[in-house]
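Re: the 368-residue chain
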Amino acid sequence: MKKTNVFIALFLAMLFFHPTHMKALEQDYSVNTEISEFQRDKEKSYFDLRLKPNQVTSIFLSINNMSETENTFYISANPALTSSTVNISYNVPNPKTDASMKYPFQTIAKVKTPTVKVPPKQSKRIEIEIKMPAEEFDGIILGGIHTSRELTDEEKKQSGYVNTISYVNGVCISENDTKIKPELTLNKVEVSQANGSITVNSTITNPTAINLSPLTWKATMTDKTTNKIVKEQKQGNAMIAPNTTFTYPMKFITGELKSGHYQMKITATLPDKREWVLTKDFDVTVKEIEKYEAQAGGLAMTNRKPTITNPLLFGIIGVASAICIVGGILFIIGKKRKKNEEVENEIARELREIEQRKRERELRRGES
């Protein structure tokens, strides 16, 4: 029995244990900005530039390699986007931009050396040229200079995740002090799926050339039939980039979302009490739930019969099957061993009886 338990434990360990290498975060380089002569506020750590139409200028960064080896760095000029967590992100180079973004940052900013090698314990100066559009604009153009280090040969050989540090230096460009009236619109609400969960996605647009932050953000989904709140999500310090459209998800576990008539209400509030209350009615159908729960890896309803499509469930079933097979083999072996022991005992008993009869015959011969 002990051998059986040990065997199954080892079997499960082999199935579930996968060694990974996690490299600890080490600050092996840094990125510093050089203050531009066109900087509006020299106390700010990011580039806050006041430029003119048709103006051409350059801003500069310094990459400092603090490691003992030469490293390769990648530098890109990326536009400001709004992520699904309602934060501003600068990590996507050349993304599809919103139609309201007239002058995407990556179209006016050019990194002169997008790939650069920096020797150990040395620094290199990086130039980013900015060419302003001919037409004057109101509001801001927001972007960031993203710097990352190439993985070393040793890191590339490692399995699992390798943590590295990347830097973003923000760039905010304006031409005047014209006040922009911010807007926020809720375009549509629809059912979808992401990362193994069924979601209700709200598509939201900031069509104005001004960022909205910090926002107090609340999303409420209400069942229109019962007027009961189905789900509510809140967060503080939300940020929306200028001229961006983003998808805000509300996640549901398998079986949680029901078909019906709903309303999505999103409330966004600035510290100065300016507030947007966005509402949109939408329907959720049985067909949509079945489709997206199947894609998310739940129970796919095929001809009203549940078909398991979740890889995790497949894994659990596989493990359970393997345990049953191993247990069955061990049971058969044990049963055969028991049968063999019974046969051996029977043979031993018969041999003892034969030996006893032999001794009795010899005793009778001696008496005669």
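The CA atoms of residues 216 and 236 lie 5 Å apart.
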